[in-house]
Design brief:
The chain has ten helices and 14 strands. 35% of the residues lie in helices and 23% in strands. The N and C termini lie close together (7 Å). The chain has two domains: 157 residues, HAD superfamily/HAD-like (Rossmann fold); 102 residues, Hypothetical Protein, Haloacid Dehalogenase-like Hydrolase, Chain: A, domain 2 (2-Layer Sandwich), CATH 3.30.1240.10. The strands form two sheets. It has an eight-stranded mixed β-sheet, sandwiched between helices. A six-stranded mixed β-sheet has the order 8-7-6-9-11-10. The chain has 270 residues and is of the alpha/beta class.
């Protein structure tokens, strides 16, 4: 019945140690052998996702990947970009200037590189878990003469909520799509681009009906694809907001192989 699974990475496929539980790897292979494609759909960059595709054996022909929360769709083997949506440089400048008023760390993804302005422990941790080497700039606005992939900030959840409130009460919310991708991560993406729009784009590319797609996630940035999919799944450890709109909530957490549970229940044994 289901021909495609779109799966979030952090806190969904990965456990809290940011490792892929072995049970998930076993069932992903079973899904593929059953004729169901498995596609990572993450806020992470394609540079970071490529490492996980290799680990999962998805870096082969007829495999695909979604990065930057729907901003890019590409072939996992050739890395050929099939669809890309960028944030206008002028809007990235607006986001950077807004965020400089708060105690947060600001980063920009551009041309498959991660840029930052001020060194911090939070940036070091983020770069390490993303398996990237960030590049220092004296002024992030230098890079914004170009359109960029996204602006992302790290900070305490209470501060990020304050920023979100100010964004929602300003004109910027009509120019940029924003959301939390984790409690300590807040992102500025191209307007009306998200994992849900990527789901629709990939369904057209692969000629797979949306009713034949499963989407699995845990956080606010996954809601758009979970809503649109034929079967929208929230993992047990997901936020209350995503659980409320999901068709199915797993009995297992990300640490217990929630993705394997979905594949076993809806793909392998159908």
């Amino acid at each position: 019945m289901y021909k495609l699974i779109l799966c979030d990475l952090d806190a969904t496929l990965l456990n809290d140690k940011r490792e892929i539980p072995n049970i998930n790897m076993i069932y992903i292979k079973k899904a593929i052998n059953n004729g169901c494609k498995f596609v990572l759909s993450s806020g992470r960059s394609n540079m970071s996702l490529n490492n996980f595709n290799r680990e999962l054996g998805l870096n082969v022909k007829d495999c695909y990947c979604i990065g930057y929360n729907g901003g890019i769709i590409y072939e996992a083997d050739t890395l050929k970009v099939l669809s890309e949506h960028l944030l206008k440089g002028s809007l990235a400048v607006k986001a950077v200037r807004l965020c400089r008023n708060y105690d947060v760390d600001i980063m920009i993804y551009y041309n498959e590189k991660l840029y930052y302005e001020k060194s911090s422990e939070r940036i070091d941790i983020y770069a390490k878990r993303s398996k990237l080497v960030p590049i220092h700039l004296n002024d992030l606005e230098e890079i914004c003469i170009n359109d960029v992939s996204k602006v992302i900030i790290i900070g305490r959840n209470s501060i990020l909520k304050n920023i979100d409130s100010n964004v929602m009460n300003s004109n910027i919310c009509r120019e940029i799509t924003t959301f939390f991708s984790a409690e300590d991560l807040y992102e500025f993406n191209p307007l009306d681009i998200d994992k849900g729009t990527a789901l629709e784009e990939l369904s057209h590319i692969l000629k797979i009906d949306i009713s034949e797609i499963i989407a699995i996630g845990d956080n606010m940035n996954d809601i758009s694809m979970v809503k649109r999919a034929g079967l929208g799944v929230a993992v047990k450890n997901g936020t209350p907001e995503i659980k409320a709109i999901a068709d199915y909530v797993t009995e297992r957490t990300n640490n217990e192989g929630a993705v394997a549970e979905v594949i076993e229940k809806f793909v392998v044994n159908m």
